[in-house]
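Sample pair:
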Amino acid sequence: MSEENQVSNEAVVDNGAENVTQENAQSEYIAESKKYRKRAQDAESKLADLEKQLETQQNQKLKEKEEYKTLAEKYEAQVNELNPYKEKYEGLVEQRKAVLLEQLPEDKRETFKNKELDVLEFMVSEISSQKTSEPQVRGTVKSKEPNYVNMTTEERRNNWANIIKSHTQK
């Protein structure tokens, strides 16, 4: 019986050692993976910088050679490529402004109609935060509860139902 307990205890110790070695190996793989990812990101950023430098050098060469027609065509192609994105962005900004203006009170809409998007968002957040400071139960009358401490024993017996009712509502 004691031999069986020893064998089972040894097996548990071996599993713990295996888990530790697996965790060490996994952490090494993770560290190596992070190192390669950082290296790839650095290489991509360097490539983007070099492409920008190459483009500026080409533009300077075209200016030096006074080939403005080629340069103009290049910029025109770039503008034509980016125009749909500009239109989409402006549409989104106008939609957002319309939504924000509808959240403002009618008397303030005309004032903020030509303001920038960030100003509108700020004003809507300010106005909405002011509205939340109002009490949630408007138009209710606070009931006057009698002072139960100063009542006589006879008055307490007569008002016992009201006393229980007021405590259950709290």
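Residues 48 and 54 are 10 Å apart (CA to CA).
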